[in-house]
Design a protein that fits this description.
alpha/beta, Phenylalanyl-tRNA Synthetase, Chain B, domain 1, 2 domains, seven-stranded mixed β-sheet, 15 helices, 17 strands, 38% helix, binds S-adenosylmethionine
């Protein structure tokens, strides 16, 4: 085993020298590691700290070098972590990382996650596969204790965001939406697939934190037991209609000729309690964590976003600054930034109101009114 030592927050991690720095990452030197995912690991640590549990059993089911597992064991009090990967080449990295941080609450495991989670259950199960989590979701659910938490990453952004619609239909049985809403759509398709999988076991879910970042989607859901929870979860799935000529968008609990995108998860993405308790202190990407936390906390938690470029091509007027648009929207209703895209926003105003306000604050109109 060869490697280099890096530091994320207060945790030291030995990783393959030849590892990915950006993007979805590749498996180099036989074991996967991507430095850009430090933010994703930071969020896991902040999220788990916010639960403030006296005891939490954790399964990082696809841990590779053990980076997320050892960070959790080292940085989240009262955790007992199983750092699992099917790849035998990963085990020396996991063991070295446990040793390097002097951890007694973390153990390496070299199992196929399907059999590991059929035989053991945990309070928190983390899935971070190459690409789609769909083939692994059922096992994660079975290995999650009653009222446990599932944390699931999907890096198959192209299918979920509509660039490979056929793949999305096949994997997720959903019709993705391309264009300005593609990332929100992708996240909501992922969440819909988890909800449907849970319902098969008479379980429902409450999303605690869900986001799109870099090249991936990520959601943390609280599993809720019972047929009633499953039914009320399924009641939050639905379809969407979008008319690119008028920009009108609407949702429906039924599929029809217009409401042909989805099904999507149409419920909330976050729990405001969890977000209030999350703190970026001592993380590797503290500045970015602070910025994202701020956006998530303020983001209007409803479907579906608008984008300044979308409004610009519709009205043939150049876009105002996002801040100016938000100020004008907030004089009539409620509007916020969204973490999905720096030029997008969420609002409770109608499409017609949004278009009228856009026209009124576009630079051309302001110049003409001077
Ligand atoms: C994207 S990497 C995980 C990265 C890691 N979570 C991190 O933060 O660096 C996916 C890992 O899943 C592992 N894997 C794939 N199929 C598996 C299975 N059936 N059971 C356990 N691990 C599996 C691969 O060996 C690989 O190391």
């Amino acid at each position: 085993m060869t490697g280099t030592t890096i530091r994320e927050g207060p945790t030291e991690i030995i990783v393959p020298e030849d590892h990915s720095m950006h993007g979805p990452g590749t498996k180099t030197g036989g074991v996967f590691f991507n430095e850009q995912m430090a933010f994703n690991r930071d969020i896991s640590v902040m999220f788990l700290r916010s639960l403030q549990r006296d005891e939490l059993t954790v399964c990082d089911a696809m841990t590779a070098t053990g980076s997320r597992a050892v960070r959790i064991a080292n940085e989240v009090p009262n955790t007992y972590v199983t750092a699992n990967d099917i790849n035998p080449l990963a085990i020396p990295y996991i063991e070295e990382n446990i040793k390097l941080n002097g951890l007694t609450n973390c153990e390496a495991s070299n199992r196929n996650m399907h059999s590991l989670l059929a035989e053991n259950s945990f309070d928190y199960v983390d899935l971070d596969p190459f690409g789609s989590p769909v083939p692994f979701t059922q096992s994660a659910i079975l290995g999650c204790k009653r009222r446990g938490i599932l944390a699931i990453t999907a890096t198959d952004t192209a299918p979920l965001a509509g660039a490979h619609a056929i793949k999305c239909r096949r994997r997720y049985q959903s019709e993705p939406i391309r264009g300005y809403m593609c990332h929100e759509g992708g996240l909501r398709i992922l969440m819909c697939s988890i909800a449907k999988e849970l319902a098969k076991f008479d379980r429902g879910m409450v999303p605690l934190l869900s986001f799109y970042a870099d090249h991936y989607f990520r959601t943390y859901v609280q599993v809720v037991e019972g047929a009633q929870a499953a039914d009320s979860t399924l009641a939050q799935l639905g379809y969407m209609a979008y008319d690119p000529d008028t920009l009108e968008r609407s949702v429906s609990d039924r599929y029809d000729k217009e409401h042909r995108y989805g099904p999507f998860w149409l419920g909330p993405l976050h729990s405001s309690d969890i977000l209030q308790r999350m703190s970026p202190t001592d993380t590797a990407t503290e500045k970015r964590c602070n910025k994202m936390l701020e956006i998530w906390k303020n983001e209007l938690d409803q479907v579906f976003l608008f984008d300044l470029s979308e409004l610009s091509s519709h009205t043939k007027l150049s876009p105002p600054k996002l801040e100016d648009m938000l100020t004008a929207l907030n004089e009539c209703g409620h509007a916020t930034k969204t973490h999905m895209c720096p030029t997008s926003f969420k609002t409770d105003l109608s499409t017609k109101e949004v278009i009228d306000i856009y026209r009124s604050v576009s630079p051309e109109t302001l110049r003409a009114n001077k």
